[in-house]
From TrEMBL, chain A:
Keyword Glycoprotein applies: no
Listed GO CC annotations: plasma membrane
Organism: Candidatus Muproteobacteria bacterium RIFCSPHIGHO2_02_FULL_65_16
Function, as annotated: Possible subunit of a heme lyase.
Name of protein: Cytochrome c-type biogenesis protein
A single GO molecular function term of this UniProt record: metal ion binding
Lineage: Bacteria, Pseudomonadati, Pseudomonadota, Candidatus Muproteobacteria
Amino acid sequence: MKSRHARIYPRLAVFICGFAVLFFVAAASAGQVAEDPLERQTLDIAKDLRCAVCQNQPVSESNSDLARDMRAIIREQLQAGKTREEIIAYFVARYGDFVLLKPPYQDAGAMLWIAPLALLVVAGASAFVFLRRRLRAALPEPPGLAREDAERVRRAREEDDA
Amino acid sequence: MTEFSLHFIELGHFAATLAFAVTALQALAPLAARLVGDDRLPALSFRAAVAVFLLTSIGAAALIHAFVGGNFSVLYVAQNSNLSLPLFYKIAALWGGHEGSLYLWVWILTLYTLVVAWHGRKRYQEHLPLILAVQGWLMLGFFGLILFLSNPFERLFPMPPDGRDLNPLLQDPGMVFHPPLLYLGYVGFSVPFAFAMTALLTRWESELWIGLVRRWALIAWGFLTAGIMVGGWWAYYELGWGGYWGWDPVENASFMPWLLGTALIHSITVQDRRRMLHDWNIFLVISTFALSLLGTFLVRSGVLSSVHAFAVDPGRGAYILGFMGVVLVASFGVFMALGRYQRAQEAVTSLLSREALFVWNNVAFTLAGACVLLGTLYPLALEALSGAKITVGAPYFNTVMVPIFLAVILLMGVAPLVPWRKANTERLKRRLLPPAVLGLAAAGLMLLVFGWRHWTGPVAVGLAVFTLTALLTDYARAVGLRRTQHREALGRSLLKTVAGNRRHYGGMVVHLGIVVITLGIVGSGLFRAEMSVSMAPGDVLEIAGERLRFEGVAERRGPNYAAVQGRFTLLNGGVTVTPERRLYARQDMPMTESGIHSTPLRDVYVVLVEAADAERWAVHAYVNPLVQFIWAGGAIILLGLLLTLSQRRPRVRAGTAEERNLTSP
C-alpha cells in the first residue's frame, strides 16, 4: 500500500523545513554589531523596574521624565561600580516593592510564585485522575443496537484505529 | 448643527429606553409562558429580539449623528469630540469613552441576539425563547447600567461651542477597528453562554447543540484573536516603546477569555468526536464568558491604573461588581446544580491518544488563564485588603507563561500525529523522529550562531521547527497517500487533501500561524537592539547593522494638531522614515508617532523623543527582528479559521452513523 509518493513527500517536507532554518540563521546573522555594554546593562536593569509615574510601563520603555532620570541614575551607579542588586535595592528603598515589575519572592509576593506551581500540580493531578478513571470506565451500550451490530461497530472502530 | 439633531438625540434616547423595556419582555417571556401557560408568549421573544436590535440601532445612529454633526449639547459628544476632529474619528469616537463603549457592547449583543434568533428560528425553534431570554437578561443588565448610571445621551446645558476632543492616543486607525473587533469577540461568547444555560435548564441533549456552540465559539474566538492582534499592532506603532505586548492588565483582560476560549474550542472537538467532557465544556463556556465580562469591566470600571485606562469612572463600580456577582452566582449556581445531567458515553482507550492530549491541552490553557487572572487581580485584591501596593509586570508573566506556551507548542507538534483512541507507539516514534532531529538541530544551530542569550531562545525555536516539520510531514504524508490512490496531478492532490477535510486542515493552518508568531516573538523579544542618543542633523546612528542619518526636522500642521516631523534616511537602502512629535491643541497633549520601516526580517523603528537643544534631538531607535512574523501569523490564523468554518458539518464517520441518526429530530 505504501508507495513512492507516500514515502517521498514527508522527506521532502523535512528537507524544506531544514532549508528554511538555514535560510533564517544566515539572514539573521548578517547584521550583528557590537553594542555599548553600559547601555545594555542599564536597560537590563531598567527593564525590571516600574516607572512609578507611568501606567504599568517599565523604566526601559517609558519616555517620561522620571524614567529618563531613573535610567541616568542606573547608569551613574553602574559607572560607580555598583552591582545590579545594589541598584535595585536603592530604588526599592525609595519607592518600595511597587517599583519591582517582578514581584518579590517573599512577603506579599510569595503567593504569586507559589500559586502557579500549586495550580499546575492540582490541574495536572486532576487531569491524570480523570484520564485514569475514564480508562477503566464501564460504558453504556450504544442505544438501539443489536448485539451483532454493536460488534460490527466495535470492529470498525478498531480498524479505524489501526 | 441643526434643530433636527437636537430632536434626533432625544429620539435615540427614547429608542434606547424602549429597547430596555422590550428587553425585559424578551427576558421574561419563557418564564411568563410557564406561569400563565400561554403558548404564544415564547413566539414574542423572536419579535422582541428584532425590535431590540432596531431600537438600539436607532440609539446608536442618533449618537453617531450627534458626533458627526457636532451636537455638543450631548455631554458625551462634548467630552469626546471636537469640530476639527476628522470624520473618521468622529464616528469611532462613539466608543472612545466609558458610556459609548458600553453602548457599543450592548449594541453588538443585540446584533448577536438578532443573528441567533434568525439562525435558530427553524433549527432550534423550541429552545430559542430561552436562549434569547438568557441574552435578554444580559442586555437588561447592560441597559440598566447605560440608562441609569452611564448614559451617553445625557445633555449638557448650556451647550459649549466646541467639544474637548477625543483622547489623542485614540486618534488612530487602530481605534476604528480594535474595539469593535474585541467586543465582537467578547460578546460573541455570550452565544455559547446562552446555549449552555438553556441546555442546563432544559436538559437539552448535548450532542444536539455542541456542534452549534462550536461554530459560535470559533467565530467569537476569531474576532477576539483579530481584536488582540490589531491591538498589539496599534500599540506597536502608536505607543512608541517598540513593543506590542506589555502584559498590561488591560491586555490581560482580553487575553484571559482568549486562553479559555482556546481551551474550549479544543475540548468541544473531544466531545464532538469522543462524546466525553460534557460538563467540562459547559464549565469552560461559562468561564470564558465570565472572563469576557470581567475583561470589559476591568477596562471600563477604572479599577486599573494602566496605559489603557481612558474613560475611567469608579462611581459605577458597585453596579458593575453587583452585576458580575449576579451573573457568576446564577450561572455557576445552575451549573453546580444541574451540570452533570449528561455524562461521558465513551471511555479513554489509551493515555497516548489524541483525546488524552487534548485533555493536556486543556490543562495548559486553563492553567495559563488562571495564572493571568491571578497576576492581574492579585495586586488589586492586595491593595483593597491590606493597602500594600505591589506591581505584577511583564517579567512575572514571562517567567510564568513562557514555559506553559512552550509546552503548548510541543503538544501542537505531537497531537496531530497521534490518532484518536489509541496510538501505535512504534509508528508514532518513527513519525516523530525527523521533526525531533530537525528541531534539535535548529536549537543547536541557534546556540552556535547567537550564543546563550536566554534559554527560551533555542528551546522555542527548536520546538517551533519541530512542530512546523511535524505539521508539514503529516500533510505531505496525506498528499502522498492521496496521489497513490487517485493518480492525480500534484497540485490537485495538494488542494484536494485540504478541501476534503477543511475542518482539520483549517486547524493545522491556525497552528502554523501560531508557529510563525512564536518565531516573531523570539526574534523581537530576545534580539531587539535599542539605542537612545542625541542627534544633530547630518549625524549617523549605527544600530544592529542599520545606518540611520538624521536629516533634520520640519514643521507640519494636521487637522487638529501641530507636528514636528523628523526625517531619517536609512543609508543601507535609501529609504526615509518620518517619526513625528505632535501636539494636540485642544487637549494640550504631546504624542509621538514612530517612524517605522519594515522588511520581512526586521523593523527599523525610530522615535523622536524631544528637542535636546536648538538643533539636537533626543532620538530613540530600535531594530526589531521578525516583528512582521507576528502580524503575518495573525493573518494566517484567521485564514485557517475561515477554512475550518467553511466546512459546515462534520463528516459522518462509519462507526457513529447510528448515533448520528439519533440527532435528527
